[in-house]
Amino acid sequence: MRHLDRRLLISQGEKLRSRWLSSRKIIERDERLGGHHFKSLPVVLRRAEGVYCWDTEGKRYIDLLAGFATVSQGHSHPRLVEAMRDQVAKLAHTSRAFYTEPHGELAEYLTAITGYERFLPMNTGVEAGDTALKIARRWGYRTKKIPSNKATTIFAKGNYWGRSLAALSASTDPNCYRDFGPYMPLFDSVTFDDLEALERKLQENPNVCAFMVEPIQGEAGVVIPSNGYLRGVRELCTKYNVLLVVDEVQTGLGRTGRRLAVDHEAVKPDLLVVGKALSGGMYPVSGVLGSSEMILALETGVHGSTFGGSPLGQRVALEALKILEEEKLAENAAKMGEIVRKELEKIPKDIALEFRGRGLLAGLQLNPDFANGWDICAKLINKGLLTRPAHNYIIRISPPLVINEEQIRVALNIITSTLLSHRKT
Question: Enzyme group, top EC level (predicted)?
Answer without folding.
Answer: transferase
